[in-house]
Amino acid sequence: MSAAAGGPTVASAPRGVRDAPPTRVVTLGVTDYDACWHAMRAFTDRRDADTPDEVWLTEHPPVYTLGLAARREHLLRENGIPVQKVDRGGQVTYHGPGQLVAYTLVDLRRMRIGVRALVRTLERAVIEWLATHGVAAYGKTSAPGVYVACDGGEAKLAALGLKVRKGCTYHGVAVNVAMDLGPFSDIDPCGYPGLAVTQLADLGVLQSTAEAGPALARHLCAGFAHPVRVD
Which end of the chain is more exposed for a tag (fewer CB within 10 A), N or C? Predict the structure, then answer.
């Protein structure tokens, strides 16, 4: 799999970074998780200081992924969905049809921020995008991701996990758009027992991942141009 095909450039250089090339958005459609993961690693290994940052938009067939620190006890039941150990941060999550995944391949050195600042930047971009649909959402420094108030509590709408390699990141953010949420009941989502999850369709936003992707990408790229600063 290659990231070379298609995609408009949608962001200008980050403020204060000289001659940073625009971010490229690449729409991949449905991809095999393992192939996409290895393509991200290969892209990161071959990039140099002049390589544009990229956002890859995709969705995956059903798969559970376990982050570097994940504990298998958070997989509560076997249900036939494959499980894959990967190199991102975080615990266990689920990917499946109807979930929009935006992989953010970003040069932190060029942006002059650390990974915590990028996490906050990604959360802010998702929150601002959701606000355009009338959805009030928020992030949590203690548990990265994007949440909404739900039935007197809260539910997670978007999960986030990153890997830093050679001063650059891959993996990214996954937003539940219009999917079967049932597989989340067989795990402790993101390692939190009893954590509720939700999706845009249940919040009254009726879109496909193909419709949602370009708008989210615009907000992500705008965030890269003006990242959050974390002291």
Answer: C
Q: Does residue 1 sit within a domain?
A: no
- Output the domain CATH number for residue 108: 3.30.930.10
Domain membership of residue 23 (yes or no) is yes
Tens of pLDDT, residue by residue over 67-100, are 998 888 999 999 999 999 999 998 999 999 999 9
Neighbours of 70 (CB within 10 A): 22
Neighbouring-strand partners of residue 149: 154
* Domain region containing 80: 9-225
Structural domains in the chain (count): 1
* pTM recorded for the entire structure: 0.91
Task: Record the tokens describing residue 107, joined without a space.
Answer: 């040069």
Examine residue 231 and state whether it is found in any structural domain, yes or no: no
Q: Which of 36, 150, 168, 190 is catalytic?
A: 190
Cβ neighbour number for residue 142 with a 10 Å cutoff: 5
Q: Does residue 33 lie in a domain region? A: yes
- DSSP character string of the chain: --S-S---EEE-PPTT-TTPPPEEEEEEEE--HHHHHHHHHHHHHH--TTPPPEEEEEE-SSEEEE-TT--GGGB----S--EEE-SSSSSEEEE-TTEEEEEEEEEHHHHT--HHHHHHHHHHHHHHHHHTTT---EE-TTS-SEEEEETTEEEEEEEEEEEEETTEEEEEEEEE-S---GGGGGB-GGG-TT-EE--GGGGT----HHHHHHHHHHHHHHHHHS-----
